[in-house]
Amino acid sequence: MDVRPAAVSGLFYEAEALRLQGQLDALLESAADSGAGPPRALIVPHAGYVYSGQTAAVAYKQLAGHRDRIRRVALFGPAHRVHLKGMAVPSVDVFATPLGGVVLDRVAIEQLAALPRVTVSDEAHRDEHSLEVQLPFLQTLLEDFSLVPVVVGDCAPEAVARAMDLLSADPATLLVVSTDLSHFHDYEEARRLDRQTCECILAGENALSGEQACGARALNGFLSSALFRSSQLELLQYCNSGDTAGGRERVVGYGAFSLH
Questions:
Q1: In 3D, which of 229, 77, 212, 221 has the Cα closest to residue 155?
Q2: What is the pLDDT of residues 110-156, one digit of tens each?
Q3: Which distant-in-sequence residues (6+ apart) come within 8 Å of 111 by Cβ?
Q4: Cα 245 from Cα 51, distance rounded (Å)
Q5: In a 3-state reduction of DSSP, which class is residue 259?
Q6: Are strands 173-178 and 72-78 parallel, antiparallel or unpaired?
Q7: In Å, what is the CA distance from 220 to each residue of 8, 88, 158, 177, 208?
Q8: 3-class secondary-structure state, position 185
Q9: Cα–Cα distance between 145 and 19 in angstroms, integer?
Q10: Which letter does DSSP use for residue 119 in this model?
Q11: What secondary structure does DSSP assign to 35-102, as a single string?
């Protein structure tokens, strides 16, 4: 089987399996549990765990107790490393992390590849952290699941929504949208801007800009999807890097949302 090796272990999260599992266990143990039913979708940040791991853990904690109900994860995130027109799926069979390999749903990936605006590009996935950093959380909280990873570049919301709806029609599929919020404003300005962005997300405003969220194109697709329109989105937690592991002069914002 062809494997995409971990690209950012040791940079965004611990590289050694036991240390990584300890890092994840600590983050999840400290995360609040809303007691809600299993989510249909999550919006999560994708910075290094020391910066955004606390916020991501609050979203992933929603999966606790429901691990047997989710058999597939459709993971959408932005392209940071390559200029991408449309969306990209990989050709490989497995995505690896220090915790092991996650098997890809090749049948679903081939279905996506047949859609307009979807191409096969291992280059788009090779160094992309926005998807990879989600995998150890999913490996910890789910039992036996397959993965459909999609990198989103310059793409209309309707095209992204079509891909998401194709996958989320299966009730055993969890949709995960990976995005951070504002970048490199001072602490108070970031909080002000991110508050407005969170209100836009909750209201389903599907014209977010990259300045509001680096994963805006994936988010806009999600906010245009039939899944979003049929369910209720909840903001679970907001913070920025000034609250966790960074200074407050230039911060990055993080939000965790759950769709039920």
A1: 221
A2: 999 999 999 999 999 999 999 999 999 999 999 999 999 999 999 99
A3: 166
A4: 5
A5: strand
A6: parallel
A7: 26, 17, 9, 10, 6
A8: strand
A9: 23
A10: E
A11: -----SEEEE--S-HHHHHHHHHHHHGGGTT-TTT--EEEEEEE-SSS--BSEEE-S-SEEEETTEEE
* Helix H or strand E segment including 178: strand 173-178
Dig out the tokens for 115 from the structure: 């859609």
Chain segment 45-97, per-residue pLDDT in tens: 999 999 999 999 999 999 998 888 999 999 999 999 899 999 999 999 999 99
Place of tokens 């092991």: 100
Distance CA 224, CA 219 (A): 9
**pLDDT for the residue 35:** 67
How far apart CA 31 and CA 87 sit, in angstroms, is: 32
Count of beta carbons in the 10 Å neighbourhood of residue 151: 28
Angle between helices 157-168 and 216-223 (to 10 degrees): 60
How far apart, in whole angstroms, are the C-alpha atoms of residue 257 and residue 179? Answer: 11
Q: Containing H/E element for 237?
A: strand 233-240
Residue 184 is encoded by which pair of tokens? Answer: 């490199």
